[in-house]
């Protein structure tokens, strides 16, 4: 609905259009946010809370807590232990997680399992393989695309493990049969996986890369199958690093089977 207002400007009477959105802006919902903004620290959750409120069409009264005295005084006054804190219509909503729930978003559960990291990794590997195929052959798919997809996946998986080899090796001990008997294997594995993937991508030293990939993949597949389908254990997979929330199971087994298939295929071409 459009409302016409008459406004005088320099002696002339002019019609000014006022939309429904403009009227709503004058009566916008207001939220009060208290967050830490100090010289040496700016609370990231405070910024996320402000952004979330603004995306929900709230006008934000943004109060900065600029020193330790103000922070302690605020916490004492409102009997809270953390900041940021959001207030809507005089009611305290809480921190960023509480605010997300208030707006109907799902609250993230600490240590909850998720397949998102592995889905993202394999998606990126597929796109890289397609991009290289287009660069080399001028088309988006050939038989070589599958080889590049698996080898790029190996490199990316190895990279995730190499970010923190110690944590990976510790998590790996939960289920890998060889690592449980020879501890150093957990520290060597990420380098073998990454190196084999790079050599397979380049198509060189196949007599080294294929047997290496086959060796680690066979042991991995047997270990995963035993832990998940025989022992019925619920574990996290170290496939994307030592802080992984990916559950050990079908995806982990599939990863190893892909490596086995790739290794056998590469050996058959020698």
Explain this structure to me?
- The chain has about 270 residues and is α+β, with helices and mostly antiparallel strands.
- The protein folds into 2 domains: about 20-100, Glutaredoxin (3-Layer(aba) Sandwich); about 115-270, no CATH class.
- About 55% of the residues lie in helices and about 15% in strands.
- The chain has 11 helices and 6 strands.
- The chain has helices at about 20-25, 45-55, 70-80, 95-100, 115-135, 145-160, 165-170, 175-180, 185-200, 205-230, 250-270, and strands at about 5-10, 10-20, 30-35, 60-65, 85-90, 90-95.
- A 4-stranded mixed sheet has the order 4-3-5-6. Strands 1-2 form a two-stranded antiparallel ribbon.
- β3 (about 30-35), α2 (about 45-55) and β4 (about 60-65) form a beta-alpha-beta unit.
- α6 (about 145-160) runs antiparallel to α9 and α7 packs across α9.
- The chain is elongated.
- It starts with a strand and ends with a helix.
- Mean pLDDT is about 90; it is low at about 1-25.
